[in-house]
């Protein structure tokens, strides 16, 4: 076994080929072509189970925005998880995957009336309300279609999680939720409690993504319990459910050291129990919604090397057959995914190279500072670790590249999760 940040069944065979679930990636590429997303099914299923075990008795939802494809939603639901959706498209996909409404949570900072109507029709379990306008929309839709929405009010708790600026969401100056420090959370509760078609089932706060420590999660639980106490004091209402969001960090390379799933679980639970005891409140039903931590580490991307360009005294560029269209994270966040040679034992001498994609952008990076065998050449395969979250879900057709296929591998067998796009798919919406 190779170990983190690679999927749990990753290994090397005698010829030096990377294998996942016992299958050499060379065979998968021969069959499904390159580039290819490969999902280690056991790894994904085990992560779903580990989260449920670590957060015992909590409702665990798969935040499908990480990779909202029907096959993964179906597996997560089979493992007993709820599914978090954030648009009509994600909700439609969950329906396609056979996920019942009573296991779905609907998010979004600007849900439309048709989206709320769809949520009512599908009987989604909880709508996470993000704004005063949304409360009005829910009341209006609820009256029209005769539906009572059970909601969680999304609170902006004023917690600055130490993560990339683009994936921080809990600080005061955020587009998401009702800001506590400005009194908006209290005002939202006041308003929601007057509505007929809105039932306040709980509170929600998500503080960001790719967070490594437990402090911000503990602080988040404490702030939410404080608000529960304030609601009890002002309205005599005991809030029964708390969703502390997702955002647990994962290793993308050997330097990254997030805490374990069990540590996250213990820390959040202990913080919740203590805060409830301090405020004389019963422990609420806890809910969490990780996305990245479930699917990213279980997935790799395999690319074929096309060109190797040596610029003496400057650098070596290794170009692969995908890039920012299938993984925008290096360009968007400066993400550093580990990358290895995947089809053979390479030379023992490693060279510092920059791995780039095939797009018409200098910022089209796969890994800026990669260390690969110095005999890397055209026709080699490279594998990129931890590519299951915010890659396929953010993929584009820039330069009209068809999006890659994705396969699930398990115990020596493989099956399609998403087929490769065709040139016809690319032009299907074009009107001459
Ligand atoms: C509201 C909400 N919940 C859950 C998540 C999942 O976060 P992650 O994939 O980091 O676990 C996100 C992602 O940004 C989110 O916005």
Number of strands: 21
CATH homologous superfamily of the largest domain? Answer: Alanine racemase
CATH topology of the largest domain: TIM Barrel
**Strand coverage percent:** 15-25%
> What is the count of DSSP helices, taking H or I runs of 4+ residues?
12
What number of domains?
2
Query: Helix/strand-derived class?
Result: alpha/beta
Residues in helix, %: 25-40%
Largest sheet: 9 strands, mixed
CATH class of the largest domain: Alpha Beta
| Unique ligands | pyridoxal-5'-phosphate
Task: Describe the protein.
There is one protein chain. The protein is α/β, with parallel strands linked by helices and 432 residues long. It has two domains: 11-33 and 298-427, Lyase, Ornithine Decarboxylase, Chain A, domain 1, CATH 2.40.37.10; 41-295, TIM Barrel (Alpha-Beta Barrel). Helices cover 30% and strands 25% of the residues. It contains twelve helices and 21 strands. The strands form three sheets. Strands 4, 14, 15, 16, 17, 18, 19, 20 and 21 form a nine-stranded mixed β-sheet that branches. The protein has an eight-stranded parallel β-barrel with strand order 5-6-7-8-9-11-12-13, surrounded by six helices. Helix 2 (41-54) runs parallel beside helix 9 and helix 8 (215-235) runs parallel beside helix 9. It starts with 10 loop residues before the first strand and ends in a 5-residue tail after the last helix. The structure holds pyridoxal-5'-phosphate (PLP). The site of pyridoxal-5'-phosphate has 19 residues, from helix 10.
């Amino acid at each position: 076994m190779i170990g983190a940040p690679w999927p749990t069944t990753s290994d090397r065979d005698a010829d030096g080929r990377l294998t996942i679930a016992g299958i050499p990636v060379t065979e998968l590429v021969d069959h499904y072509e390159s580039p290819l997303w490969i999902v280690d099914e056991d790894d994904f299923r085990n992560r779903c189970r580990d989260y449920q075990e670590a957060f015992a008795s909590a409702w665990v939802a798969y935040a499908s925005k990480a990779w909202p494809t029907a096959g993964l939603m179906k597996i997560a639901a089979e493992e007993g998880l709820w599914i978090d959706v954030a648009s009509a498209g994600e909700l439609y996909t969950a329906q396609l995957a056979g996920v019942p409404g009573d296991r779905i949570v609907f998010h979004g900072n600007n849900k439309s009336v048709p989206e709320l109507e769809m949520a009512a029709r599908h009987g989604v379990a909880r709508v996470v309300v993000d704004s005063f306008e949304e409360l009005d929309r829910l009341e209006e839709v609820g009256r029209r279609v005769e539906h009572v929405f059970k909601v969680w009010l999304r609170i902006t708790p004023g917690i600055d999680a130490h993560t990339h600026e683009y994936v921080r969401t809990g600080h005061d100056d955020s587009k998401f939720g009702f800001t506590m420090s400005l009194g908006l959370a209290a005002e939202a509760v006041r308003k929601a409690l007057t509505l007929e078609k809105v039932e306040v089932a709980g509170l929600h706060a998500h503080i960001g993504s790719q967070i490594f420590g437990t402090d911000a999660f503990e602080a988040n639980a404490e702030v939410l319990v404080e608000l529960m106490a304030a609601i009890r004091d002002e309205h005599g209402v005991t809030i029964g459910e708390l969703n502390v969001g997702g955002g647990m960090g994962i290793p993308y390379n050997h330097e990254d050291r997030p805490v374990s799933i069990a540590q996250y679980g213990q820390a959040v639970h202990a913080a919740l129990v203590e805060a409830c005891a301090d405020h004389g409140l019963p422990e609420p039903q806890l809910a969490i919604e990780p996305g990245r931590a479930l699917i990213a580490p279980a997935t790799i991307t395999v690319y074929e090397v096309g060109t190797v360009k040596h610029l003496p005294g400057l650098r070596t560029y290794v170009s692969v057959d995908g890039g920012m269209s299938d993984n925008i994270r290096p360009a968007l966040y400066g993400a550093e995914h580990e990358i290895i040679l995947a089809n053979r034992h390479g030379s023992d001498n490693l060279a510092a190279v920059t791995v780039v994609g095939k797009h018409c952008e200098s910022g089209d990076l796969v890994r800026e500072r990669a260390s690969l065998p110095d005999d890397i050449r055209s026709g080699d395969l490279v594998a990129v670790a931890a590519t299951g979250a915010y890659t396929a879900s953010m993929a584009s057709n820039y330069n009209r590249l068809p999006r890659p296929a994705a396969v699930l591998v398990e115990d020596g067998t493989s099956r399609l999760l998403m087929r490769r796009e065709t040139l016809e798919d690319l032009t299907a919406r074009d009107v001459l």
